Amino acid sequence: MDDAAVLKRRGYIMGINLGEGSYAKVKSAYSERLKFNVAVKIIDRRKAPTDFLEKFLPREIEILAMLNHRSIVKTYEIFETSDGKVYIVMELGVQGDLLEFIKTRGALHEDDARKKFQQLSSAVKYCHDLDVVHRDLKCENLLLDKDFNIKLSDFGFSKRCLRDDNGRIMLSKTFCGSAAYAAPEVLQGIPYQPKVYDIWSLGVILYIMVCGSMPYDDSNIKKMLRIQKEHRVNFPRSKHLTGECKDLIYRMLQPDVNRRLHIDEILSHCWVQQLKPKSQTMTSTTATKDGESSRNTGQDLLRVPEAITDKKSTARLEPKEDPKLDTVLEKEEAVQVTRQSETLGFTAEVQHQSPQTEQGNASSPPPESVHS
């Protein structure tokens, strides 16, 4: 039975092809039950690699089924046929993804960036509170609804954090994602704290939002890593960013994992808080409120997530274990990390300025070019 017939029996009228990889494709479809268009991701188990089938697909399905947040793309249904095809029915996006939006319109005004970044951070907090990490946060995976609100998508590299007998989150050894958004510890191929990895990617995303360019050029990974480890962040003078905005980015792009901000610290940062209603506080109960999805969002989205394409890479990172690590490690194999500078359509703006010392608080943000 072909895909159209399978979907018809489930109450979907198949539409156009939205994207295709070697073992997965995404089709648009009209849901007769929901009365609006959806995206259907179709995965052929017979063509998919073993690592994907045994590790990543089960994780993605488990996590998609449990997520329910207004700033995360909604999954409506997941089913499988006897011939080995998996169908994931989800929201579509009208306004495309954030990368396309920035490439078309340029850098966002801080007020607009603040609103979108708060939505994204709220979604990440919701995930982290559930011990779920995304591990592929990037502009292509942030969809926009009809009102240009952020919808986090593509949980193909996501996972539930494991904990040891003492309740500590175990380090991860799966090196996945896009090099331009990857934290230095991931680029170095050493075991890393998965939640802390997500925070670095958030810093790259916010930089792109307000600068319209990449913070680092991933055409030379070795050079990029050296700059990152020196904690050098170059801000284009032409953007006239506020000190608070630069401070937040600088603290997220912190190479020292023990000093990098946590998601609660991001949400309580003075730059993010400028937009939040006074009645809303950053407590553990906020995630529960944020987790209540709007029942009307399905009609607002008309764009497929990026998870459909194979994540191929020109830069393979091999894992290396640090013998001095005393934390329990999760035994995982390396996954290729993709380069993004060419895909993005814009590169890092390199500022040749004298490095200066890191500033210690939000009231004293880093200058145009800084390092620690």
Features of the shown structure:
372 residues; alpha+beta; Phosphorylase Kinase, domain 1; Transferase(Phosphotransferase), domain 1; 5-stranded antiparallel β-sheet; two-stranded antiparallel sheet; 13 strands; disordered C terminus
Describe this structure in words.
It is found in: Cytoplasm. Belongs to the protein kinase superfamily. CAMK Ser/Thr protein kinase family. Residues 278-299, 337-363 have a biased composition (Polar residues). The structure is a single chain. The chain is an alpha+beta fold. The protein folds into two domains: 3-90, Phosphorylase Kinase, domain 1; 98-370, Transferase(Phosphotransferase) domain 1 (Transferase(Phosphotransferase), domain 1, Orthogonal Bundle), CATH 1.10.510. 30% of the residues lie in helices and 15% in strands. It is built from twelve helices and 13 strands. The strands form five sheets. Strands 1-2-3-5-4 form a five-stranded antiparallel β-sheet, with helices on both faces. The protein has a two-stranded antiparallel ribbon with strand order 6-9. A two-stranded antiparallel ribbon has the order 7-8. Strand 1 (12-20) and strand 2 form a beta hairpin. Helix 4 (110-129) runs antiparallel to helix 6. Mean pLDDT is 80; it is low at 276-365 and 367-372.
Overall geometric form: globular
Q: How is the largest sheet built, in terms of strand order?
A: 1-2-3-5-4
Structural class: alpha+beta
Low-confidence stretches: 276-365, 367-372
Keywords: ATP-binding, Cytoplasm, Developmental protein, Differentiation, Kinase, Magnesium, Metal-binding, Nucleotide-binding, Phosphoprotein, Serine/threonine-protein kinase, Spermatogenesis, Transferase, Ubl conjugation
Cofactor: Mg(2+)
Region (Disordered): 278-301, 332-372
GO molecular function: ATP binding; magnesium ion binding; protein serine/threonine kinase activity; protein-containing complex binding
